Amino acid sequence: MVASNPLFQGGLSMKKFSATVVNDIWPEVAFFTAVATMVATITEMKIHNLAINSALLTVLGTVLGLVISFRTSSAYERYQDGRKMWTNISIASRNIAQIIWIHVPFERTYKDKTKMTITQSVVEKKSMINLVQAFSVAVKHSLRGETGVYFQDLYSLICFLPRYANAAGTGADMLPLWAASEDDEYPLSGARPPPPSREATIAVPSSEDGKSSPNSWFRRKPSSRQNSMDPEKALADVQSHRPLGPARDPPPASIYDYFPFLRIFSIFVRPFRKSNKKYKRDAFGRKIKPSFSESNVPIEVAVYLNNYLAYCLNNGWLQPALATGLMNNIASLQDTMANLERIGNTPLPFAYQAHLRMSLWLYLLFLPFQVVSTMHYLIIPGTAFASFLLLGFLEIGQEIENPFGYDENDLDLDGFCLAIQRELHEITAHTTPEPSTFVFTSWNQPFAPADRRSAEELTRDAEQSYQHADHPDTEPGMATIRRTLLKNWRDVDIITRQ
């Protein structure tokens, strides 16, 4: 997602125009400008008068402007809905992690009086929080049409989940989470995958000079700091029976992205060029968005989270109110996933898009004929500007209606997932200390600014009731505390309004 103007950052490069729609609309702009040039030349050189009545120009222009405005507004609404849905995922992920990490006790006893060690409890809770992180990563890949679990940022988070319905572990008993990801190209060599080992791990691809690899997360970012980042290093090292796909796999850049005007020659080199499924553009040079692919991975992850909730309830480790909160947040994850799927797999009807584009083409095609008698040669830059303006708004609506791909203006799903990862690790870094270990210290001044004594001073003599030094005439106790708090309000109100 482009948050700032990329044209004025760093050096000059034609590649920076990829953040705009110039690369997508320039063939059409060039065509209508050529038509205007032809009309102006023939009419002004008295070869033939091509001027026609312009009575319908204003009416049709107003109608097209309203329709294009509606098209862009509806697409932007989908864009904002996608961002709101990812905010919901972030909020629900934080809530689930906090309930699991803080409210599920570390010291636990099963119903049969068997005790779980603190180490086992910490490992269990951290593994379930890793599943919370896996949910957002799985949703990201699903929205981008990348199905399965064998990705560098996803596999290590869920590889410990059971693969078979029975202990025997045969191919016929493989659970849906894994069966949907297997293919004939990389079959399992045995009934079970090889166990992970520290010696044999999946190495993250990298170039020899230490720069980011072709599959790097941040290869399209200009910052040298980001180019040196490798988020997969923050994940576990696990072994897989097949190569893991990259966490971020945008289409490769071609010479046409740097010099879009050369795309006119692509027609001649197309028969000699190898097929590249990732480099997708239509006949007019516009980018083709990846189609949404239904994935069962987020659903399966949510099932395991609900199973953990039932497990804690059955053993009496969660209070009903907390269990309700955990259940509601897991349901929020699933609701959000359904709404993201709605945005991803429900494009604007093709008939509406085709009719709008054809109407705009006809309007721009007949525009020079209607104004050549009054603008003369000025219809050439005028038509170029009008086609650039109208086609640009139409293309912007087409680009942002599905904001989950790798375009410069798409939502930064990778950044959202990394932010969730950082937040979940921050939650699990919390040691859940007893309040008494940090409240009654010399660093804490609970009654400031009215009373700047520390909590240690206030509680040093347990037998002495609280009495403020400014009010020695009052009886010590809660009445004095309330008077101090009231003075706090007055002081803060005055200080903060000055």
Main attributes of the structure:
498 residues; mainly alpha; two-stranded antiparallel ribbon; 16 helices; 1% strand
A few lines on this structure:
The protein has helices spanning 22-44, 57-103, 118-143, 155-158, 176-179, 224-227, 255-258, 266-269, 297-314, 320-344, 350-375, 379-400, 413-428, 436-439, 455-458, 478-496, and strands at 108-109, 115-116. It is mostly helical and 498 residues long. The two termini are 41 Å apart.
Give a description of the structure.
- The protein is an all-alpha fold and 498 residues long.
- It has a domain at 438-496.
- It has helices at 22-44, 57-103, 118-143, 155-158, 176-179, 224-227, 255-258, 266-269, 297-314, 320-344, 350-375, 379-400, 413-428, 436-439, 455-458, 478-496; strands spanning 108-109, 115-116.
- It has a two-stranded antiparallel sheet.
- The chain starts with 21 loop residues before the first helix and ends with a helix.
Give the topology, please:
Blueprint: H1 22-44, H2 57-103, E1 108-109, E2 115-116, H3 118-143, H4 155-158, H5 176-179, H6 224-227, H7 255-258, H8 266-269, H9 297-314, H10 320-344, H11 350-375, H12 379-400, H13 413-428, H14 436-439, H15 455-458, H16 478-496
Antiparallel strand pairs: 1-2
Structural class: mainly alpha
> What is the subunit organization of this protein?
single chain
Rounded mean pLDDT score: 79
> What is the CA-atom radius of gyration, in angstroms?
31 Å
